[in-house]
Amino acid sequence: MREGPSKRASSVTPFLVMKLLDQAKLMTARGEDIIRLEAGEPDWTSPAPVIEAGKRALDDGQTGYAPSAGVPALREAISDWYRERYRAEIHPDRVFLTSGSSPALLLAMAAVVDLGDEVLMADPGYPGYANAARFLGAKCVRFPVLESEEFAYSADRIAELTGDRTKAVMVNSPANPTGARVSPSDLERICSLGPWVISDEIYHEICYEPDRCHSALEYTDRCFVVNGFSKRYAMPGWRLGWVVVPDSCLSVVRNMNQNFLLAAGTVSQVAGLEALRKGEEHVQRMREEYRGRRDLIVRRLREIGFGVPGYPAGGFYVFANVTPFSQDSVAFAKELLNETRVSVTPGMDFGPASNTYIRLSYTTDRDRIAEGMDRLERYLAARAAPK
Question: For 254-280, how does the pLDDT look when each residue is reduced to its tens digit (9 = 90+)?
């Protein structure tokens, strides 16, 4: 009998930032002043109407199971939102609520990927995509997104890698970790290539471009679209996401959801419905504040000597080239934490081509960002000075 964990479970790689996050939390608990620029968690409190709706749901005794696919009123509201926002007609039956967007992603990928299939994804890109594909027995085929092109997706590059074994293309726009947005023309071309498209649109409402982000649902029905409430409404602790499923996969997703996930939290869904109804003003304020933070951190990083090709189009991350200072993002991130008490994410988390980058999250206030940049500047200047 073979001892130890399964090969499938062992294929899941660690998220390196979590180790640094644990260390930063431990240092904070010891009373050290740690500037947190590593985690992708909004620093805003959920909107007041959302919190009040959750309290009312508890007071009303809404503590039982919700329907497996989600509360009907919330599924209908999400369907209406796609019609209003993207002019996409999505029947509420195609919307499945999940406990955060990560289970939604896994449902989408499991619905179409078989052992030995290929899934195309960006390098650099969010590590959860590759882990989900490998867990399902698929092969990850990475297409480069280049600093010289401001990390933009290239539909031509993706088309060149698309072959007989390509089952799905993973799209993330605006992207984690780069903040890059897929152009409408590239997204339309990607949606026309033939494989399934799995589009992670979790950062759509944090987009700084004058024209809006576009959904894959505008260009094809042969797609799964993942989204949620954590980033958009500052609701990460409510654990509420969704996936829009094509008609041909409704039954398999319904079966997987019922067996493996059961249902998203009832109280969270009540709060999510209130967010859709009354949260837009909060989203606008948050987006404008993030824009100011983005402009500050990009300017300061460039002044210090990091490579930042352009202003990220969306999200709340900057992906900075550390080649002037290090060739090893993990060692460099540890050094910065220990020597400056500034916590960042090593680029190694995001793909084979990313070990000379770090990701900085601007989900903290401008004064703390400015202090963090000052600390890095002082330390790196002293480090470079002749001994």
Answer: 999 999 999 999 999 999 999 999 999
Burial 90-111 (b: 16+ CB within 10 A, else e): bebebbbbbbbbbbbbbbbbbb
Measured distance between the N- and C-terminal CA atoms of the chain, rounded to whole angstroms: 59
Q: Which of 234, 324, 243, 331 is nearest to 279 (CA)?
A: 234
Phi-psi group of 150: left, alpha or beta (phi > 0 → left; psi -120 to 50 → alpha; rest → beta):
left
Question: For residue range 3-46, what is the model confidence (pLDDT) as tens digits?
Answer: 788 888 888 887 777 778 888 889 999 999 999 998 888 999 99
Q: At which of 279, 312, 339 does a domain end?
A: 279
Predicted local distance difference test score (pLDDT) of residue 126: 95
Angle, alpha carbons 211-318-216 (nearest 5°): 40
- The domain that holds 317 is classified in CATH as 3.90.1150.10
Q: Which residue range(s) make up the domain with 151?
A: 48-279
